[in-house]
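$ run holo --ligand "zinc ion" --emit tokens
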Amino acid sequence: MKLLSPLVESPMGHQVLRALQRLEAQRPNQLLVLTYHAVESLESFETQMNYLAANYEIVGMMDVVDAVAARKRLPPAALLITFDDAYRNFAECAWPVLRRNGLPVTLFVPTAFPGPEGRTRAGTAGDAPGRIYWWDRLEHALLTTTRRSDLDTPVGRLPMATAGQRRAALRRLKQYMWDLPHTEILAWLHEISDRLAVTAPRSEVMAWDELRHLKSQGVTLAPHSRTHPKMSRITAEQAHAEVAGSLADLQRETGPVLPVFAYPGGHYNKETVKALEKENFLLGFTTLRGTNYLPTARRLELRRNHIASNATLSALQARLLYGARLLNGWHTLRKKGPFRKNTKGYES
Ligand SMILES: [Zn+2]
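-- output --
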């Protein structure tokens, strides 16, 4: 994106890519997928949704499943909107805008996190530490602590005196923790929260009753693993348990669910794909950027393009242009390096 942004933003580059996009958009059965997490700016998000509604055919997950099964074709300029992680912010900010505009959406849920009851009900079951994402707990610990002395960590001694240093420490630790098994992440979070003298924040993940309510209003719910691990770093048995378990959880709690899966953090490998195949999943979504041409796309490795909800309209346009299918090969080479024979998106 860094390399392409100046090109996209130059008048000539923009025109060339716009022409490419128009050319591509005329082809049916081609799918762009966008990924959001939470809405930080309602105004920007509404602007983005108005733009998408006016310029794309927003399709639902069932349309994509039908197109992959060759039961029907996707219209030209088809675009699927997805949200990951089931933050309460989705229900409060994103869904009202999407619903008002008649835009279908899929919400990927890591099923170990929703509590039995929502915030409005009695009790604090939804705030159990295990129901808060580790990255949110880590951020809360590092950014709210009053500690200013250096912190000894597995990645070295990290200075904590200034806000900038605490943000840098957060980045280093987040990177380190992504590679740990889930149980070690929880143990390490417990320890660091003690050392930084902070308590766990409130859970911002929706409860099951809130998810059921969204589903009744038309939101498509889909599994996003159980514990949100880095799937490329867990065993084949664990991967299978995460994949099958999350589908079973979602079905038990919310009723019938389409067997489509989003890889947590976009991390996956051959074993993850095998686990999806074994459980008869129809679609798998990565975070590899680009467009999917469905007749030839690997259906368990579909591309998705992350976009911040507070991005400006020109940043959204640049992201959409950047997703042009003609650039798919370039994205892959850039991700894997030009000398690697394996040009698949997964980590070997
Ligand atoms: Zn996620």
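-- notes --
Residues 133-195 form one domain.
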